[in-house]
């Protein structure tokens, strides 16, 4: 009886472990060291390539980076104030992440890493959006139609003539 109960508990714990391992993950870049660069010593706070090699990245996971020198337009944040950036992993491809700050010095000093995203559970519904339409080159006429150019030229001449006439009349009125 006791061994049956132990076997049941073992099976239940294995099922919980399997279910728990089948979920989406928030990966904190660099773990507790963060995604930071010390400009005084020109060093990163972590070995990001090594960190990435110890992780398994799947569709629907997020990369979370704590950063202090990123500015998000209309984000209300300030430089040198920590900001967490979240990047959803939405394609089964190899992704490259790097810092281009200081004209690439940070990237050259190791603030870069590469990850391969696997299928995992696939994208959750919240991230499973249709792809954007393919890029289409905007149509621009090679030349301005002749009548449009003539209208612009004639209107400009007429407007400048009217302005000169108005200044002349105003001058005459002031002399009187």
TrEMBL record:
Keyword Oxidoreductase on this protein? no
Compositionally biased tracts (Pro residues)? 127-136
Disordered: annotated span:
123-142
Cite the InterPro entries for this sequence: Cupredoxin
Coiled coil stretches, renumbered: none
The domain of life for this entry's organism is Eukaryota
Signal peptide start-end:
1-21
Gene3D superfamilies tied to this protein: Cupredoxins - blue copper proteins (2.60.40.420)
**Keyword list, A-Z:** Signal
Tagged with keyword Transferase = no
Q: What is this protein called?
A: Phytocyanin domain-containing protein
Lineage summary: Eukaryota, Viridiplantae, Streptophyta, Embryophyta, Tracheophyta
